[in-house]
Design the sequence.
């Protein structure tokens, strides 16, 4: 069983750029697991295989229970009703799926930065609106709860 969660090695410099330019208030104090979860949320609807060399990004021992639960919920939220969920509780399946979400999320965030980063406030507002839509579609709707 692997001890780390991976990202595509080609995005390592992009993560450093996020921190150095303090995009979305991400800086050197921001933990990689927080960046990972943001990227997973952005890519949850279009998972992609990592197409290059993998780079260890998070040591699994640093994840808290609630972060493991969130990663697990991301995978379970993306399976069909007829699928056998038991197969996802074997090995690293949840982490492997989260890596696919993050791979897609890197592309989404890079494109958004290229398109909207001239106005930081507008960029932040549009991204938060999109994250709220993703939350409504992928979490709130599955809870069957009216708020």
Sequence:
């Amino acid at each position: 069983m692997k001890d780390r969660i991976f990202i595509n090695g080609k995005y390592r410099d992009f993560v450093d750029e996020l921190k150095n330019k303090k995009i979305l208030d991400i800086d050197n104090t921001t933990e990689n697991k927080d960046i990972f979860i943001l990227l997973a949320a952005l890519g949850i609807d279009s998972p992609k295989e990592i197409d290059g060399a993998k780079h260890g990004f998070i040591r699994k021992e640093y994840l808290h229970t609630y972060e493991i639960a969130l990663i697990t919920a991301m995978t379970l939220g993306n399976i069909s009703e007829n699928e056998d969920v038991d197969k996802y509780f074997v090995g690293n399946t949840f982490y492997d799926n989260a890596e696919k979400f993050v791979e897609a999320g890197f592309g989404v965030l890079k494109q958004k930065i290229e398109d909207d980063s001239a106005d930081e406030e507008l960029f932040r507002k549009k991204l938060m609106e999109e994250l709220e839509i993703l939350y409504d579609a992928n979490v709130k709707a599955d809870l069957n709860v009216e708020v």
Remarks:
- The mean pLDDT is 86.
